[in-house]
Amino acid sequence: MHFLTLVLKNILRRKTRSAFTILGISIGIATIIALGAIMSGMTSGMEGVLKSGEADFSVAQSGISDLSFGKINENRTYEIEALEGVKRAAGVLMGIYPIGRLPYVLTWGVKKEDLQIFGVNVVNGSAFSEEHELIIGEVASKEMGKTVGDKLVLRQDEFTITGVFETGSIYHDKGVALSLAKLQEMEKKEGYVTLIYVELEEGANLDDVCRQIEETFPDVVTIKSVAELGKVDKGLEILDAASLAISFLAILIGGIGVTNTMMMSIYERTREIGVLRAVGWKRKRILIMILGESVLLCLFSLLIGSLLGMLGTKLLTLEPTIRGILEPIHTFETFARAFIVAFAVGLIGGLYPAYRASKLLPSEALRYE
Q: Model-level pTM?
């Protein structure tokens, strides 16, 4: 009998026990896959928000823990635009409103002349020209079944859709954009913006301009990439830490489950192992066999857990509350992390049982009842 065939056969001997062990580990793997997809989706979305259109970087209020709560005096836009090396600056305000079946739709207030730096490309219709007009993102347009000429209600105000736009950023394309002055009025934030997008002059040094802005205006921070988002928003950091903690818990809990399963298997196969030792199997071969069973058990869990994780994120996006603000993305890094966790569980969980099995003496094992 081939060695790998023997390993697989040993796993299938106790189908129910193996199935429950695989199920337990699969749930941990599925959670890692789902959280990783959510994390990647949020990171990709925020990257599109922070570096929209022609902007080289963005400016946000310092000392806040959630970007959506940021308030920057609109005059900062003109002061930043006057700095050396800055070609253009544009302030935008962010709001969140229920629209139709979607309870959370990102709404952006922006001046019509700043739509280009904001990254808006109107693909159907035209930009808004009055305060009760707006444009809708391409994704939001399909999800809501709304297009040019239709009406949308934000709170008590009714707006006419004048155009459909796309930016390439999921957070923008799932939202709507309207006059900055009108959204400031609705949010009761007259004279304030959430973010300032900055476009540099050709040849200007990005780091120098960012340092100049932070030194001149202590109430704001510059954000050059999503890696710096932690300056103003702790959401991604918390999610990443939670994902890492769950990975460690999956290794710990899964390792205990695998250890228990493999130890029970060894006790039941003591005579068999004694026979294998008596016919010439080396301790190293016994060790590899038990470790192989443990790792193969976890690789089965990886396959099932990956499928459950992808199915879970798919079901998650069916919920309107989630679909309006999040688009999970499955990346190679997420599956690589899941593979490392599964392999680590297999090694850690099988190491002690494999060691115990390799130490069995043929004479003692053959006498075991």
A: 0.73
